[in-house]
Amino acid sequence: MFKRSFASKDRAGKSVKPSKRSFREQTKMKMQQSLDSPPIGSTLTSPIITLIVGRDQRLFAAHEDVLSLSPFFSAALKGQFMESGSKRIELLDEQPEVFSCVLEYLYKGDYYPRLLHNKRRTSWELEDAQDPHKPGGRGCVESTIFHTGVGGVLLKDTVVYCTAERFGLEELKRLALRKQGLQSGIQADVILRSARFAYDNTPDSDSRLRAHYLALIIRSRKIFKRSGTMQMEMEIGGSKLFFDLWVAMCNHVDDIVEIT
Questions:
Q1: Could you tell me what percentage of the chain is helix, strand and coil, using 3-state DSSP and rounding each to the nearest 5?
Q2: Reported pTM
Q3: Count of CA atoms in the C-beta half-sphere (13 A) of 162
Q4: DSSP string covering 189-248, please?
Q5: Cα dihedral sign for 159, 165, 166, 167?
Q6: CB 33 within 8 A of CB 40
Q7: CA dist., res. 30 & res. 48, Å (int)
Q8: Helix/strand/coil for 185
Q9: CA distance 26 to 110
Q10: Geometric angle at alpha carbon 191, from 194 and 104, rounded to 5°
Q11: Is 3 in a helix, a strand, or coil?
């Protein structure tokens, strides 16, 4: 599953050749091809579906055609999860803040903060990222959320990725992973808690988000050595994360030995 030194195409931190189109434009084109009628950007006329999300039962509304882009909702709208006699779907285990990101993606091909291509630097960056030279806007982007199910703070893009996994939205998974790769200055306990969440909410066949966390922990090993977070988490155990981390570290050491 994990190649030495994360040489796979999903290696965290690997440079990506900039595309001539923005990520949002590419995604919208793919979504529009999969939506027979009406296309994204037109006046939507399909029925409105009410969605009840989270423990507080927050209400959302979306067009049936847009929700049907997700295999999960396509099945739900055929009656598997629908309340009898009404177009309502209950998602009481989902996080409203994250579900809002999913809906924004389904309608616009991206979610806040948008992924933007900086032509001058030929690199990707997040909308409204903290910049002392550009005050105003919606302010510094918060990279974490409090997850009520976990009872702690997690990286938002990790939760979006796992939600996209449940809803069958592969493009949203790729987008969330790319955005998370742009985050920095994350506390050790948040990294480990988010890594555990990723392992608990992705299949063993996942080789992207899990590999991202293994590479991130290895790169941040000096921070983890100084804190007691890693020791405490390893003593708690109960996650395949630490075996995968051990294998990745062994591969990393083997590579160094071969070079020297």
A1: 45, 10, 40
A2: 0.75
A3: 22
A4: HHHHHHHHHHHHTS-TT--SHHHHHHHHHHHTHHHHHHSSHHHHHHHH---THHHHHHHH
A5: positive
A6: no
A7: 23
A8: coil
A9: 10
A10: 50
A11: coil
Q: In this structure, what token pair is assigned to residue 127?
A: 């909308």
Question: Which amino acid is it at 92?
Answer: L
Is the N-terminal amide bond of 113 cis, ω within 30° of 0?
yes
In the block, residue with structure tokens 């982007």: 141
Going by C-alpha positions, the residue among 34, 35, 59, 16 that lies closest to residue 182 is 16
Give the closest residue to 98 by CA, choosing from 40, 26, 168, 155. 155
| Reduced 3-state DSSP string for 123-153 | EEEECCCCCCCCCCCCCCCCCEEEECCCCEE
> C-alpha 239: how far from its chain's center?
20
Q: Taking 50 as the threshold, does the pLDDT of residue 12 lie above it?
A: no
138 burial level (CB within 10 Å; 0-12, 13-18, 19+): exposed
Exposed / middle / buried, residue 34 (Cβ in 10 Å: 0-12, 13-18, 19+): exposed
Query: Do the Cβ atoms of 33 and 116 come closer than 8 Å?
Result: no
Cβ atoms < 10 Å from Cβ of 93: 11
Pairing of strands 115-118, 123-126: antiparallel
- Taking only the tens place, the pLDDT of each residue in 31-86 is 555 444 444 444 478 899 999 999 999 999 999 999 999 999 999 888 655 555 56
Nearest to 73 by CA among 105, 114, 112, 33: 105
Cβ-proximal residues to 111 (8 Å cutoff; 6+ apart), any chain: 100, 101, 102, 104, 105, 160, 175
Strands 123-126 and 88-91: unpaired
pLDDT at 121 over 60: yes
